[in-house]
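Entry 12.
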Amino acid sequence: MSNQPLTTAWVTVPNGDLAIQAYLAYPQAHGPFPAVIVLQEVFGVNAHIQQVTECIAQAGYAAIAPALFQRTAPGFAVGYSDAELAEGRYHKNQTRASQLLSDIQATIAYLQTQPWVKPGGMGCIGFCFGGHVAYLAATLPAIQATASCYGAGIATMTPGGEGPPTLSRTPDIQGTIYGFFGMDDPLIPAAEVDAIAAALENHQIDHRIFRFAGAGHGFCCDQRPDYRPEIAAQTWEAVLALFAEKLR
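Predicted 3D structure (tokens):
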């Protein structure tokens, strides 16, 4: 990945009366660039998610990470202790699928007005809680490439309990989706990964499912005990290939 100069900033994404804070990064080189939306873990748009956003920008994209807890915890960004995890899960449990989709659609609309964003389809990537949200986001028409990394609960629930599990929305996915799962993840049993794969296959969605032996939850995050550098590298290689194929 290149080490080119980036423009980075906190920006405000309007969504009706809600002002969503978002971390933005894109190359200073001449654009416009394809856009990628980064969807946070339960720990908020913290230093790690900002770093992920910058890494995607280094690969030649306009990347933005909207604060998914804006309604209940503006400015929320914590580390990875047990207490901070509990706090993050508390705010995650306040989210609703309809509001998350609304906020992502507002982020798409914001990007579409920016001169440094290439017109056309966009990508999204999410981790942990954001991996589940990415599966939701994949149902939005503008999202043409989705990377869902260890998103728990896709087959069993939807945020806020608004209707059947998020997996039931699979027919609405119009682009390509890649799912990345650790086979030792206590939060995502293998049967749930199988259910996701079966739904994508049954509805003829363009997809790939990656199952990593020996990986738990959070294997892409170098701040978490389950970090696996080799598996993270394989994941990023696949993600960037997906974005390059579908967004450029």
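Annotation: The longest helix spans residues 229-247. DSSP finds six helices and eight strands in the chain.
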